[in-house]
Amino acid sequence: MTEPTELPPTPGSRWTHRNGAPYTVLMIANVDTQDEARYPVTVVYQGDNGKVWSRPASDWHRSMTAAPQPTQAQAGAVPLTDSAARSLVWSASDRARSESINEDDVLEIVRATEAAHGIKGGQHGADA
What we know:
The protein is an alpha+beta fold.
């Protein structure tokens, strides 16, 4: 068996067909096959029109190119409120409380993470 020059796409990745139609990869099937001739590794993907398709992974790059992936902000993510950020961090980490991390440090970490993922603008909701 020869090594592929390009790896198959990953589930959730967006691709554009050479005709301009956008697709989202749903899964890679038959990855554990012992008989690749009968059960080739296959990309299962869906068009924006809802139709589901599949094609052998070995044929994927012939007509598909990777589409730019949206930032979290473009995908609809919004900043957390200060109280939601505090609640998230404090409920998830007893260690943070035991190491004397204050609320301002927590908010700075949350805001830096949001900024790194392209989430900007006003806060979602309002703090009391």
